[in-house]
Q: What sequence folds into this?
């Protein structure tokens, strides 16, 4: 069991083999067994299998080909819509149009997503999260015809792997885990925590290709630059306003 | 493996038995194998074992006794602090003081938390998430001496179970899963989706105890009322501003 978790790799190449309805149903059921706040289950999952629908998602998600290759694309939403409709139908006044409730609903969606990820991997399937989901929230809401109170938070691509990548590196535990108090990082700590990552052959290759000084600059200048983050931040805040959470 | 996920129950009573360092280390390592955005690992975990520290957490988390009983309390933080310090030490200008980056970091923290939850359960441990974490974020930041860019997002209480509750109910799959498009809910859909939950003996008992008309009113009037949600929303938004994410 723990092995499934320990062997997680993001899979970006998939075989042209469908996932059976039986396995899909088991995976989704595993997602639904995740803890949710007050057992309110304030999230939704949209399953995309249709080729034309996947083509549109491929466009939204920056044309990553794994979206076309993989048989399943699952989008996870923070979703108070169903719960609010239930309250209103029961003469109960919902009070969930606020930021806290968005975070609550996003937590529900993400814990369910990770259950789905692990369950899929336990069936020999590969998965990859799409971080572009929050960037493109407005387009996804429009595309899926989501009502108010529904905000996409993450996406999982799922299918049979057509690659077998190595485990990716992780920071040493002392870089992530703190005992009793937050142990803030000195320059020496930072150097020590990042030294293994910085000395990987793959890191050196990336720096060479990108013609930059170091790995950190690849993140700040190429992969997740300030300008893009600030643009997509404003977009996401607009989405929260439009969907009734701000 | 799937059985661990399918048998998840929140455990609120714990035996007075410590969790070995070996198991704790394996659980934390499982958390660290979760997918993170761009492998940035922009989250942290604080492990609380100390009795006096737990007493303070017990106060912050609305005096739920399981916090005193369980040997481990793990707080998960959205955390760009380490990454930003690394960037600055490498002549790279971080651009992560914005809302999108908060959401990115919160996602990292939550996927790691769910791995920890499942890994703990695979060792026979019980767990319970504390939704009060986002309510009390300012107090937790102060208590743990967290620097800027660090925001608590959830907490897991972990220990050997001293109760064996039934699985809790879940809405039928049609209530949570959508195929291809968001399938918005009619009144008939709502009635059908919630009928099983509403007819449970435990629901009837709750309504009786609370002297209310129905289950929805228990959520809106007692458990998660508008006034509280709005208050804690404002508090959480202030935290995001103070920590540099808004």
A:
């Amino acid at each position: 069991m723990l092995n499934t978790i320990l062997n997680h790799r993001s899979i970006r190449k998939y075989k042209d083999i469908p996932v059976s309805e039986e396995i899909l149903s088991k995976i989704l059921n595993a997602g639904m067994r995740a803890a949710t706040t007050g057992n309110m289950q304030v999230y939704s999952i949209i399953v995309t299998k249709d080729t034309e629908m996947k083509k549109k998602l491929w466009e939204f998600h920056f044309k990553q080909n794994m979206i076309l290759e993989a048989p399943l694309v699952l989008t996870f939403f923070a979703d108070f819509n169903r719960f609010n409709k239930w309250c209103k139908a029961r003469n109960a006044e919902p009070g969930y149009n606020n930021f806290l409730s968005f975070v609550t609903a996003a937590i529900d969606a993400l814990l369910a997503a990770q259950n789905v990820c692990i369950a899929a991997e336990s069936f020999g399937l590969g998965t990859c999260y799409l971080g572009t989901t929050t960037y493109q929230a407005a387009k996804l809401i429009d595309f899926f015809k989501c009502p108010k109170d529904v905000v996409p938070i993450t996406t999982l691509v799922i299918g049979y792997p057509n690659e077998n990548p190595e485990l990716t590196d992780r920071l040493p535990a002392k870089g992530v885990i703190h005992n009793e108090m937050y142990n803030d990082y000195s320059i020496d700590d930072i150097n020590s925590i990042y030294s293994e990552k910085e000395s990987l052959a793959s890191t050196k290759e990336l720096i060479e290709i990108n013609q930059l000084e170091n790995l950190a600059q690849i993140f700040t200048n190429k992969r997740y630059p300030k300008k893009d983050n600030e643009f997509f931040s404003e977009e996401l805040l607009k989405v929260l306003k439009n969907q009734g959470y701000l």
